[in-house]
TrEMBL record, chains A, B:
Residues reported in the UniProt entry to bind substrate: R346
Cofactor(s) needed: pyridoxal 5'-phosphate
Residues recorded as bearing N6-(pyridoxal phosphate)lysine in the entry: K184
InterPro entries: Aminotrans_V_dom, PyrdxlP-dep_Trfase, PyrdxlP-dep_Trfase_major, PyrdxlP-dep_Trfase_small, SP_NH2Trfase/AEP_transaminase
Gene3D superfamilies: Aspartate Aminotransferase, domain 1, Type I PLP-dependent aspartate aminotransferase-like (Major domain)
Protein name, UniProt field: Alanine--glyoxylate aminotransferase family protein
Organism: Galbitalea soli
Pfam families (UniProt xref): Aminotran_5
Superkingdom of source: Bacteria
Keywords assigned by UniProt, alphabetized: Aminotransferase, Pyridoxal phosphate, Transferase
Chain ranges of the Aminotransferase class V domain: 28-191
UniProt GO BP: glycine biosynthetic process, by transamination of glyoxylate
A molecular-function term among this protein's GO annotations: alanine-glyoxylate transaminase activity
């Protein structure tokens, strides 16, 4: 019940245990095509260029940034948590001239602030995190695409923490490139990074395409300034996932099976139903934590559905309490990074773990741990508040 | 029965279906430590810095090269197949001044040729493929480490295709950095790249360490020329796998389970026994193919145990024959790349597929496909030669 990775859906684990098939077996290329179609639904996009990068979610981020950024490009990164710093760092390593704007952790940017920063810095690319798990908040993006389009700026966002459990609209919000991971609301293991690219992004990237000498044919162009990475060269990866099937890496078959099954499950449930499930159980958790006397962290009006931060109460050993949760009850909760390390616990309700039983068990165990840690708690208060909330929702429904 | 990926060992698939645990759960960090210890045995090394890069085998290559190479460094790449071209390409993208030497596909370099190239180019790093699946040959490396040490050159090799099925001695051969993948002799899925780094390589890499702003503490140094990739920054990855457990990516848990099980199986069997098993079944396949009248490709004195190339006979449709093998018999065999595409078939006997039944079945099916493709074959010749070979080996043993 931490901020992710979480328990995987058993269906995903079962899918991953299927025997491998060859890289160009029609069954395998068929799975690849199915996976592309499924993730178009997950990302809510018509982008043909929707596929999986073989690596963890930050592999997806780096693939997007290194393929889009040419050394010297101006990239604007609004930072409101740890993963904004990560975007800055990756963009810097890609050779970008990075401009940052920072908000205090626990807040997000207004559209006007972002537009002002665009006017001041004139970037080629705006790179911004959607949900930053470090603070539990999601940057509203529904107005940002229009602002970027008006100023001729490409828009990239990292939706690892939010996708599948929070409303996310790639096309309706006008986002050029989105990357994600499986280990949050999608209910799978870390190791696969779904990505979608708009036709405009594809055009920029394919203009930088360089074909490997070992498989180059006569007449293929040689690019003077190729993408700085081979593994993350989306121009090549698009040719591997596309009808050309030009050999690049050897697709991680088991991971592909897992990524495909995560999307199958989500599409079967329906994206709006999955978002509603995350809202329901996330809110129940919030009610329970408040009733235990805990103070929530950050601007709750923009909190993600699937994770909540609470201030660690005075007098209790935060890491000791987390160790007790794990050692005595088998439940993991997280702390956070940088300025929030040791100050905030983060508790997730996401993917397969966004369930009533997990919420109630976590609250019951936390009550015991808080009490033994010397925090005054009213017996049954957390579980009671969550149950009352569930009852109210059931009546309203 | 292609050149890899191959069928995974069912034990590996079962290991991968275990439920996830949290990133810093003592069970998880325990698995990580066990995996490091196991791969020290697989690589035949005492290197503390032995771990898994989360990505396919070329992710391991890129992690090694981008972490070792500073822009402007001279890197020497002797090329004897497609994957040598890949090393060149990745090194170029890392900003290296790459010097290449090329041998005709189907041959390898002599130690003297490599020493001469070192003297001519004075590289910081020699990057060379061990077994290049594109040609089925393995470059002998047992004398190369000593040559590199004498000239103060770092030695990197890609052992993806060979490790676990051919003799490979990281420490005894004096190799600084080795990377691999699971999808060949290790009997697992693509998606994890084992890597080992000598203390000298670790020293070079950690001198370039830059800690992410989002988790940087006061007093941590800021490096002017950090490693060009964040995802492949081995200095950071070493801190994640080491006792500091400094957060980097979220470890791909299922893939780790798989990588660990591959090594458990190999260490249980014993590395020499596994190499001998690959030799036995690889040689049986060779006898069978020759008896079917096929001509082997390349210098057989340096052929890898686990894959063999044969010239596609005149008059037969090579791709049609491969399609018949897959469609009618469920057996995949490969062609090759570049100059060998459509000229050579590659047939593997590796990992879980290095078995007597797979060899005999493949030969039986290939006989049928050759005959129907218009190639004159003597009924039972391939299977018979393989059976005779097995019988001879059993008598000798």
């Amino acid at each position: 019940m931490g901020p992710g990775p979480i328990n995987a859906d058993p269906r995903v684990l079962r899918a991953m245990s299927a025997q491998l098939v060859g890289q160009y077996d029609p069954a395998m290329t068929g799975y690849m095509n199915e996976t592309m179609a499924l993730y178009r639904q997950v990302f809510r996009t018509a982008n043909e260029a929707t596929l999986i990068v073989d690596g963890t979610s930050r592999a997806g981020i780096e693939a997007a940034l290194v393929s889009l950024i040419e050394p010297g490009d101006v990239v604007l990164v609004p930072i409101f948590g740890r993963f904004g710093h990560l975007l800055r760092e990756i963009a810097e390593r890609c050779g970008a001239e990075v401009q940052v704007r920072e908000r205090e952790w626990g807040t997000v940017f207004t559209p006007a602030e972002i537009e002002e920063a665009i006017i001041q810095t004139r970037p080629k690319l705006l790179a911004i995190v959607h949900g930053d798990t470090s603070t539990t908040l999601a940057q509203p993006l529904d107005e940002i695409g229009e602002i970027c389009a008006r100023h001729g700026v490409l828009l990239y966002t990292d939706a690892t923490a939010s996708l599948g459990g929070n409303t996310f609209e790639t096309d309706a919000w006008g986002i050029d490139v989105v990357t994600a991971g499986l280990q949050k609301c999608l209910g799978g293991p870390s190791g696969s990074a779904p990505i979608t690219l708009s036709p405009r992004a594809v055009e920029i990237i394919t203009a930088r395409k360089s074909i490997e000498a070992g498989i180059r044919a006569e007449g293929d162009p040689v690019i003077a300034q190729p993408i700085r990475s081979n593994y993350f060269d989306l121009a090549q990866i698009l040719d591997y996932w596309g009808p050309k099937r030009l050999n690049h890496h050897t697709e991680a078959t088991s991971a592909l099976y897992g990524a495909r099954e995560c999307a199958v499950i989500l599409v079967e449930e329906g994206i709006p139903a999955a978002v509603e499930r995350h809202r329901l159980h996330g809110t129940a958790m919030v009610h329970g934590l408040r009733a235990l006397g805990l103070t929530l962290f950050g601007d709750q009006s923009v909190k993600m559905t699937n994770v909540v931060g609470v201030e660690i109460p005075a007098g209790i050993d935060g890491d000791g309490a987390r160790a007790a949760m794990l050692g005595d009850y088998g439940i993991e909760i997280g702390t956070s990074f940088g300025p929030l390390h040791g100050r905030v616990w983060r508790i997730g309700t996401m993917g397969y773990n966004a369930r009533r039983d997990t919420v109630l068990l976590t609250l019951a165990a936390l009550e015991q741990v808080l009490r033994r840690g010397g925090v005054a708690v009213t017996g049954g208060s957390g579980v009671g508040a969550a149950l009352d909330f569930y009852a109210g929702e059931a009546t309203a429904a």
